[in-house]
Amino acid sequence: xxxxxxxxxxxxxLLEAKNASHSKVEFDFLVRGQFLRTSLSAHMETEGISxxxxxEIEYVERITAPEPEECMMHDDWISxxxxxxxxxxxxxxxxxxxxxxxxxxxxxxxxxxxxVVKDVAWVKRDGLTAVLLTASLDQTxxxxxxxxxxxxxxxxxxxxxxxxxxxxVSADPTGLKVLTDEADEVEEPADRPxxxxxxQHLGLTRTPLMTLSGHNxxxxxxxxxxxxxxCSASWxxxxxxxxxxxxxxKTTLTGSKVFNCISxxxxxxxxxxxxxDRHIRLWDPRTKDGSLVLLSLTSHTGWVTAVxxxxxxxxxxxxxxxxxxxxxxxxxxxxxxxxxxxxHEDKVFCVDWTESELMLSGGADNKLYTYxxxxxxxxxxA
Amino acid sequence: MEESSSNVLSSxxxxxxxxxxxxxxxxxxxxxEQVFNFNKPADEGDDDLSDSEDSVYSGLEDSGSDSxxxxxxxxxxxxxDGEDDDDEDDAEGEQSQQLxxxxxxxxxxxxxxxxxxxxxxxxxxxxxxxxxVGNIPMEWYKDFPHIGYDLDGKKIxxxxxxxxxxxxxxxxxxxxxxxxxxxxxxxxxDIVLSDEQVELVKRLQRGQFGDxxxxxxxxxxxxxxxxxxxxxxxNRPADKRSFIPSLTEKEKVSKLxxxxxxxxxKPRRVEDDSRGRYYDLWATEDSSxxxxxxxxxxxxxxxxxxxQESYNPPPEYLFTDEERTLWEQQDPSDRKLPFVPxxxxxxxxxxxxxxxxxxRFERCLDLYLCPRQxxxxxxxxxxxxxxxxxKPKDLQPFPTxxxxxxxxxxxLVRSISVSPSGQWLASGSxxxxxxxWEVCSSRxxxxxxxxxxxxxxxxxxxxxxxxxxxxxxxxxLILSPSLADKQVVSASERLLAGQQEEEPSEGAGPVWSxxxxxxxxxxxRLKIQxxxxxxxxxxxxxxxxxxxxxxxxxxxxxxxxxxxxxRRSQNPFRKNKGxxxxxxxxxxxxxxxVATQRSVRIYNLVKQEMTKKLQxxxxxxxxxxxxxxxxxxxxGSYDCRLSWFDLDLSTxxxxxxxxxxxxxxxxxxxxxxxLFASASxxxxxIxxxxxxxxxxxxxxxxxxxxxxxxxxxxxxLGVLDVTFHPTQPWIFSSGADATIxxxx
Lengths: 382, 744
Description:
Chain A: Belongs to the WD repeat WDR12/YTM1 family. The complex is a heterodimer of chains A (382) and B (744). Chain A is mainly β and 382 residues long.
């Protein structure tokens, strides 16, 4: 029985023979795009690969376990997190947003909302000034300008127009437009479609540039999939894709449960959604029929509240759930997650990645954890 | 040995008999000549035959030859018989011998008798030659004076007979041997039979053998059998002719064959019985035919031709171009019509139908190939009669797992209510607080200390206002949690502040007052002071009216209906009909449901009369919920039952569910999904699927789908309240363990 540890030893030996200065590395092995998790023969049996065939096994350096790096204490539950290359922006239930350095130092507290901050987003940075957004239950989205050198924050605009609490906000990659989403319910009859609004920040108080209506219930998550396209997930069991230019709906992906969060990866062009039935589902947003689940990742035992694709790796994503767990997934090993990160003591509400090899997660235990992971991408064929 | 020898003898006997016959024939010829000669004397002979015995005897005695004749005569008659049966012949041979010996005794002995002695056993040659006329009917001689000729050719004259009838009679009377006297016609003499002879005659008459000593049942030795004997009876080699086909037969056969060939002989015709030679009584009652007739199913009829088949159909039946192309493209079996309707100006111009034969043929094929069958017996499995309940798996979605737990209360949570949007949840607890929770994160957003155990809490169902009614002690509080859009909040404030119309309070009526100070900051807006402890509050669907319940046996002041916009309260009932447990408004029509201990009364608020009274068949109703359609009501009772009423069906429960082990505390309908749930003191929530059909004939389908557990039983109390999320198939339950749980 050739286990992957043995395989790994074989590769190490070979590499040592070739290169004397080689240090021992753990490898993972891919058989036809699937991670080898058991012995080779058992894997081939379960995958239905004939033993008569030549099987190509790829080896990649093993993704080492993410190590907990920092724990940033908040005063209240952390509702959202968004990380930049240098700074981490968190929104909290104590009605403030905070800016942290990557090292875990509290840099700034942005206070101004009259209610819980539900979502935060970096808009753009030029030099020392950065523009950030906070969305709150008080039905406003505030646009802040933060000077990192002087460490001063100034509220630039207040975006009004929502008739309910603003649950999610997302900034255009170009940094010019803002997409917000409300979770409020009916302001009129119940069948009135929900709204999504896009604001251009020029004046002090902005009104929506455009309203995207179509959802029947609360919209839980929005994002820009590219500069022309907006994607929104809702409690009415649909994910909708919108054309921003015309404001029309392009595609509807229909699920069977409430969607809590979505994430889009430009690398693999897949949409990952977390829903209230414990599953993470991968969708292809370009399909027209709109109800095709490519893959289901099932390991959580509670609602999946947050899901995020890795910014630099097309197969990895991280998910957070109400079962207090953060899980790191690789789509090539869809049966089980790569790692379970059981740092939180309460519900996890948000997860994020930074470019600089950090994973972030925050939850109802008031703690924002950072984990360092190896972003090694030294794929080698065999 | 004797027998075998007698057999041998008898086999030779016929030959001798033939000879005697020939001889007698010769005699006959002679006699014929004599007939020619003596045709005259006929009747005289008869007379002669009735001669007296004496004379006969005398005659015999006169001439020994005469007596010999009689013997011979008898012998011969026996000989005739002997031709048929050898054995008998044989016996007669012996008998004749006996006769001869008898006659010897009588003393009449002749030469011939002595000769006969030489051939003691050869009786066949002995002929009665006293009269040589032979074996002829003796009446031929009846006209003659003689009866024959002796060996010398001299006439034998008839004895003189002078017996008349009288003599005969006297003889019959006097002669004891008369009965054994026989008349010999050949000799015209009377012979008295000896005892042996009489015995012999009797035996023969009985069909027995003449010889007394003969054992007719002697075991016989089968000589001539199919078995080839080692020592055969005759050692004679088989005849050559038995090997050679008979020439004569061949000739005959060839003749017959020729005749048949030539047609002269026809084979015998077999007569057919069918043509009524015999009448078959049962022919019409053939069971199979009868059965066929009984099971006969007429062939399905071809539908009558419609307008399309007409030679001049109305224009709407004619095909358009698309229809025609579609018709041509379709497979012949898929076509709606097997032909294209055509229009002709007159019937004369209709051409022959080209597919006529084909169509007839197909029709015949259809009739032939589709056996028509009648199913006589229907096997009904008793289990099939039980209505099939669908599997719970097929009835999804319904809540299955516990997702969130809302912790924060310090005492049992009596009541919960979800905001119409489904974003917020309000709960009232015995710890004197009302808490507002964010549904999706289980975050407690707000806590309002009301200063008393909250009995009931109800969120205003109108989405354009954001208000909550809280019942504690004797007060009903109206809270504005300001958890909605600012416009909504301000709208609800306006509603509360609208009318300040203070009615003259009628004695025991409730008192309205505005909250002040700290309470105002907490969100408490109005206080409605009741005369007694309030147990339940319920909103009307429009959100303006509020009903409160004060259970009391003694008073008719149990239910108040408050109008929020005008700050007015009224007591709709003048009489005390029992202890009111809970009330509810009809979701669309102006009806009001009042549940007392044992029954549910439905009042029409416009007409101010009772329209219906539902008998719950339970001892103590605890809770009630009205279906969003308004035609169905469920009641939970403290005796562990849940009863479903179909208001259109009956005043009795349509269905009773006894799934709970302990008292049912709360029941709820889902607003949009076909779900209802019941919460019980046994710590479980049972979710049932309850589809209500628009068709009035179809009863609701009720299937229990899930038991949800999670609450811990504290102080013998389990789940106290249950409510559904307004849009999702989720259910909230609040328990005595101070938690609220969300099941999804």
